[in-house]
Amino acid sequence: MPNHSESPLNPSSPGRVAGLSTLFVALAALCWGLSGGIGGILTGDGWDPVVVSFYRGAIGFVFVLSWLALRPQGSGLGNKKLWLWSLLAGLGVAGNFSFYFMSIAEGSVAVAATLMYCAPVIVYLVSFTLKLEQPTLFKWVAIVMVLFGVVLLTGIYGVGAGEVTAIAAGAGLLSGLSYAVFIFGFKCAAPHGSPQAILVIAFAVMAIILFLLGDPEQTVDVLSTSSWPLFLILGVIGAGLSFIFYIIGLNHTAPAVASIVAMVEPVTASLFGVVILDQSLGLVQVLGMVLILVTVTALSVYSNSRGKPLPPAR
User: Fold this and answer.
1) 36, 47, 138, 188 - which has most CB atoms within 10 Å?
2) Which residues of 146-160 are buried (b: 16+ CB within 10 A; e: fewer)?
3) Looking at residues 256-269, what average pLDDT do you find?
4) Does the global pTM surpass 0.70?
């Protein structure tokens, strides 16, 4: 993501800046991984995935609004193009959050996080269809490998197979597509204003959409439930601090490095599901997960080395 504000890191020591920036990206990925696990707990307790997503985004909105208030320079809020592309980013993040938790509710944290990680591959397929990207043998091999990994992960090759339902798999892939839409909107808005202004608009749009689509009764019940600390933690780490960490980190982190470091998210989410939520993965599913993570990361690194970066795998 382009840098439109001064970095809080000390520019006088480039090596240290790069190291700290990579750490920020890793922290963001760790936060997103943990947020998937927390979302799994909440949806497992019967909370509507859309309501869970709403509170994640609404609390995150408070953080990015505070960030904008502290650093209002060059916000670009008077620019119509900033608003247009930020609105698209808001639609993307609304879909990303809600489909992600829907996939978790219908399947598992590991499956949802890994399928969302397929976003760059989805972007390639759309780009091929619209003739925005030139197909190559490497890209097609990578796409086929990822699709094979999805087959292994979801178990759709077996009759009556397993724990991963069509809804879980479809929602997981849609969360990845929605994330790609968010990144596309964010990148198009970036030349017209600051990252914090874009996120404020995007998160506001997301919160409005999810508030209207969520269960009204559950939305109110959250305020008096004993589970409210989990909702608060989810919003703080899953949408507040994580997005700020990620944007600051990308200022001085090479996209290829960011793509690799981002693997922290699905790995963390998967470990959370296995250790905390007692969710299990078979050997074939683990192989599928590894195949997807390694291939998508290699594809992202390849794209960045060719000067055509894809949405950072998240």
Assistant:
1) 36
2) bbbbbebbbbeeeee
3) 77
4) yes
